[in-house]
Amino acid sequence: MRSESMKTFCIAILLLGATSCIKVDTSSKMPTMGSELIDLSRAKTMGELTDQEFEVLRRKVFASF
Questions:
Q1: Angle between helical axes of 33-45 and 51-64 (0-180°, round to 10)
Q2: pLDDT in tens, 53-62
Q3: What b-and-e string marks burial along 23-51, b requiring 16 or more CB atoms within 10 Å of the CB?
């Protein structure tokens, strides 16, 4: 009986250790249409895009979603 308890204990420790090693990558999320449009708007406001460049990129965003 004691060796069965020890075996169960060892399996539990291994499973707990294995789950702590698993990392879920949440940093690679796809951008949303809204976030893309906000980024474009900020770039235009900061003077990094002309009105024409903004319109071209805005249309590309709409076409891609």
A1: 180
A2: 999 999 999 9
A3: eeeeeeeeeeeeebbeebeeebeeeebee
Structural domain boundaries in the chain = 31-65
pLDDT beyond 90 at 36:
yes
3-state SS assignment for residue 31: coil
**pLDDT for residue 59:** 96
CA distance 55 to 40: 9
The rounded distance, in Å, linking the Cα atoms of 65 and 34 is 10
Torsion of CA 44, 49, 53, 54, to 10 degrees: -10
Average the pLDDT over 6-24 and give the result. 62
